[in-house]
Amino acid sequence: MTQYKSFETERLLLIPTSEGDAAFMLRLLNSPSWIRYIGDRNVHSVEEAATYIRNKVTTQLERLGYANYTVIRKTDKEKLGVCGLYDREGLEGIDIGFAFLPQHEKQGYAFEAALEVKRAGIEEFGISQMKAITSKDNVSSQRLLEKLGLKFSKTVQLSNEAEELLLFELRVDEPILPSVK
């Protein structure tokens, strides 16, 4: 079995999401902020969550060596959210994204995890440009993307999606923020 990279920050472990995370992913995929800002994935059981992970995460991880990471707090091993690098259908390039359970939002975890994923994407996976998409009303996500050094580029619509999204891009000629370790 292939060993995929995991990452660590001062407070967090970022472990490739696996089918063992299905119960956690079921809660996250059905959290109010996921439904509002990312969309309903119609995952309503642990078995459906395992299938979602297998089809959406594991296939990309096997193909590219990176994908979605479950974000775990070191102190108590609680699963807080996810952060990752995604090869999204309808979006050219690699997309950085994140989502956390409501009780773990606004504590700096998303920034800490996303900064490490961004660093790994550039330094370890050789990604030269990163993009991110967010809904127009997700101001917290927009602020976090800007804090990570991504800049608003334009509005886009992904294939088969009605919503117009904001596209942020990391300009290659801009300095990379230091890693949070």
From TrEMBL:
Question: Has keyword Transferase?
Answer: yes
Q: Does the keyword Glycoprotein apply?
A: no
Q: What's a Gene Ontology MF term here?
A: acyltransferase activity, transferring groups other than amino-acyl groups
Keyword list, A-Z: Transferase
Q: Name one Pfam family in it.
A: Acetyltransf_3
The protein's matches in InterPro entries, at most eight in alphabetical order, are given as: Acyl_CoA_acyltransferase, GNAT_dom, N-acetyltransferase
Which segments constitute the N-acetyltransferase domain?
24-173
- Give the superkingdom in one word: Bacteria
PANTHER family in UniProt: GNAT FAMILY, PUTATIVE (AFU_ORTHOLOGUE AFUA_3G00765)-RELATED-RELATED, N-ACETYLTRANSFERASE DOMAIN-CONTAINING PROTEIN
> What is this protein's name?
RimJ/RimL family protein N-acetyltransferase
